[in-house]
Amino acid sequence: MKMITAIIRPEKLEVVKKSLEKIGYRGMTVTEVKGCGRQLGMTESYRGKEYRVDLLPKTKIEIVVEDDKVEEVIQTIRENAKTGNIGDGKIFISNIEDVIRVRTGERGEDAL
Which GO terms describe its biological process (predicted)? Predict the structure, then answer.
């Protein structure tokens, strides 16, 4: 099993979520986060004074999938989160040792 963590633009969340649901993935964790990368933030003005906003709002999606479904999920996220501009985000893939469903005690892929 793999944990796919995608950091995307907040305005792309709904389209990514609906696309993941279409391919059978409804279980996910979504968190509002802030971060920076190559986008380097932006300059804003408040009461006539300029200041730099280094940490921009992003959305983090975490989803655990079976090993043979990883590429399908990654492609779905990429196709639907992409704008072609700096700041589109990143996708991280991590190994998951085990999963346990709290309610039933099911383990592994049965718990997904």
Answer: regulation of nitrogen utilization
**98 in any annotated domain:** yes
Residue 1 forms part of a structural domain: no
Count of structural domains within the chain: 1
Distance CA 62, CA 75 (A): 15
Mean pLDDT, contiguous 10-residue spans, the chain (112 residues): 97 98 95 81 69 83 96 98 93 97 94 88
- The predicted model scores a pTM of 0.84
Instruction: Say what the pLDDT of residue 21 is.
Output: 97
